[in-house]
Amino acid sequence: MSQERETRRRNSARTTPTLGDVAEAAGVSTATVSRILNGVPNKASEDTQARVREAVDRLGYRPVQAGRSLSTMRSALIALLTPDNRNAFYAGIADAVQRAISATGNAMTLCNTREDPVSQDAYIEEMRSHLVSAIVLLGAVDTPGLRKLLADGPPVVFVNRKCPVESHWPFIGIDNYAAGRDVAGYFVSREYGDCAALHGPMLSSASRERLEGFIDGLRESGVSLPASAVIECDLTMESGYQRSAGLFADGRPPRAIFCGNDPIAYGVYRRCREMGLSAPEDVALFGFDDNPLNEWLAPWLSTVHVPLSGLGSRVGEIVSDLLAGRQDAPETTLLPYELTIRSSA
Fold it and tell me: What angle do the packed helices 30-37 and 46-59 form, to 10 degrees?
């Protein structure tokens, strides 16, 4: 073996394998290796392809994605923008989406917008600069950056919360209006006539539709909600605790409270405990989402169960369809939900 080849062999052993190393091991040119790894058809025999892939496996070669991204103007990254990564419900969806996206051969990067329009636009711009193949929005709000993304960006998928502006990109979630209406029906069946609702931000389609369904369901049974019994909250325990104070101020709490998500219900539950009230004997509580924490910390909470794994797998399917140019994916996918009745209501 020549000194030059021996030096190259030692250097290769000390460093990450290169395209040239694969080409030398397979006995072909670097151009041939590049065409095979990029899936260019009819440019190499089956025997040559087999030799190249065997060399790739033996050397542990991994293509440099930066160069490939620049040549195709698309990376193997999918961005997921979530409104609150502290919320176990959103974290559960993110985990399910990540597993589904990994199965497609792509990778996911997670961005926490904190329901802040400025942060959302900053992340959208940053992800676009990284040439992500698609952006999945778990809690979109109407912003200039979102509108620009919809006009000239990569494929977009909306999960749990619909696009706040007109869009042809797909939505995956549940029928929040019907679920809110079903909760109202349950309250009526239990003869909970004096009700209240602590709902999430009205800029969220999910929060808005849940509240509208609940109000309409009560109205159809002859029950109306006074304005003082409808309170907007952030989707957090702290907000549920703080914003519920007015419902208990006169010493006559409502008989039943519908909460826009489970963390709000946790906060209301703490308020009840501090006032010596029990659920459901004094105040019936109903949440929404069936947060993964319920199994361990709140097995008492009645709630609307949302299928997290189903959301994730469907996102993976739709992303695959979009990236492959298959346009037969429905614009809206509604997954089944169910009322999970536990001891709080």
Answer: 90
SS3 content of the chain, % helix, strand, coil (to 5): 50, 15, 40
What are the pLDDT digits (tens) for 280-328?
999 999 999 999 999 999 999 999 999 999 998 999 899 988 888 876 6
CATH assignment of 176-305, given 1.10.730.10, 3.60.21.10, 3.40.50.2300, 3.40.1350.10? 3.40.50.2300
Q: Would you tell me which CATH number, out of the four given (1.10.260.40, 3.30.1330.10, 3.30.365.10, 3.40.50.300), belongs to the domain 3-63? A: 1.10.260.40
- C-alpha 166/C-alpha 277 separation (Å) is 45
Name the pTM for this structure. 0.80
3-state secondary structure of 113: coil
Q: Count Cα neighbours of 223 within 13 Å in the Cβ-side half-sphere.
A: 23
